[in-house]
Amino acid sequence: MTNRSGVPSSALWLAFATVLFGPLFVGAQSQEPSAAKANETQQTKAKASSWTLSRMADGHPDLHGYWSSLSFTPLERPAKYGNREFLTEKEMKEVFDAGVHRTFDSSGDDPQGELFNPNSADYDVVTFGLAPWQNGVKPNPRTSLIVDPPDGRIPPLTVEAKAAREAARNGHGYIVDNHRGGGEVHADVPTDLGVRTACISMSGGPPILPGEYNSSVFIAQNSQYVVIEAEYGSEVRIVSSDGRTHLPADMHQWRGDARGHWEGDTLVVETTNFRPEDVFRGANPKTLKITERFKRVASDQIEYSFTVDDPSTWTKPWTAIVPLHAVDGPLFEYDCSENDNDAVNILAGARILEKRAKAATQGPISQK
Question: How far is CA 33 from the centre of its chain?
Fold first, then answer.
């Protein structure tokens, strides 16, 4: 598993940021939560009406700061809610309390128990502080992060995508990066293990989605660029916002090719040109487009949404809304060196499984 060292990663590129971006105009941040409109209280409305959007020298909204996407809200909507988009106040509290309890007192029956069980050999969340309830998670009134389609579910795969995934399973067994998938491990050489196990790419977005831990981002900007540094993997995306066009279709980057522009007070970022080794949810890197929207809605909240559009993978585009809440910085460097041991152990384990399988097919040794 991976861990974090004590060196602030923002300090590592401070000189770079100073030269490239110049002065940053920091907006005031508060600790007051900002709920979705359907559940806003009169007090929240009063605070929102008195809040003034901080702007950069070029007039665009200031998105600078440390933000967390942490949430107990599932990506896809549980069937019991149907097409209902929002929880009641009582339901929202129950979901939040259940999330805190689940991450603090997990059992073997909990699908997340491997990481959040206090008795786990991998993580002691009370000691290391990697659980959401220790990192500023806030209640979310939505029944799911996905808001479109109306049922809050990822649309079905296309016929081509289903066939491609079945072929991949038959040819390679278990994809190691999807570490909860179960099944046979195909690990003949290190490149079979995937880019995350090798610490090459840790999925720092797009899109920005809450993870099991390290779900914060740092945003800095000037008139030409917006920088988004992910806490998980310490990966940095540099988004141009000056109207330049995308790279040629045959040029692929680990985080894709991001191009931003402003629509009123909303930053819109369109990303294409993904690498096939690391593409969101197994999409087609040649046809995938992810469009993100960042809108500062309060002193301590950005309304972040993303739309996934890949006609060769899903039957229709789908959209999610993920509130980003202000948190204290800095981010600490994400140390991925322990995965060097993972590679050795996975390869060794695969050889042991092969020997056992071979022994099982040979049957018992004859006593004659």
Answer: 21
125 near 23, Cβ under 8 Å?
Answer: no
Instruction: Enter the tokens of residue 220.
Output: 């800095």
Cβ–Cβ under 8 Å, residues 302 and 63: yes
| CA angle, 302 then 308 then 312, to 5° | 175
The string of pLDDT tens digits covering residues 120-136 is: 555 566 666 677 777 78
* Alpha-carbon span 241 to 255, nearest angstrom: 16
pLDDT per residue as tens digits for the range 191-216: 777 787 777 777 788 999 998 778 99
Phi-psi region of 245 (alpha: psi -120 to 50; beta: other; left: phi over 0): beta
Q: Which amino acid is at 13?
A: W
Going by C-alpha positions, the residue among 72, 70, 85 that lies closest to residue 152 is: 85
Q: What is the 3-state secondary structure (H, E, C) of the chain?
A: CCEEEEEEHHHHCHHHHHHHHCCCCCCCCCCCCCCCHHHCCHHHHHHHHHCCCCECCCCCECCCEEEECCCCCCCCCCHHHCCCCECCHHHHHHHHHHHHHHHHCCCCCCCCHHHHCCCCCCCCHHHHCCCHHHCCCCCCCECCCEEECCCCCCCCECHHHHHHHHHHHHHHCECCCCCCCCCCECCCCHHHHCCCCCCCCCCCCCCCCCCCCCCEEEEEECCCEEEEEECHHHCEEEEECCCCCCCCCCCCECCCEEEEEEECCEEEEEEECECCCCCHHHCCCCCCEEEEEEEEEECCEEEEEEEEECCCCECCCEEEEEEEEECCCCCEEEECCCHHHHHHHHHHHHHHHHHHHHHHHHCCCCCC
Task: Dump pLDDT digits (tens) for 299-349.
Answer: 999 999 999 999 999 999 999 999 999 999 999 888 776 656 778 888 888
List of the chain residues with pLDDT < 50 = 1-38, 40-41, 43, 107-116, 172-183
- As a whole number of angstroms, the distance between CA 122 and CA 125 comes to 9
CA 257 – CA 30 distance, rounded (Å): 33
pTM of the model: 0.77
Residues recorded for the chain = 368
CA distance 60 to 263: 10
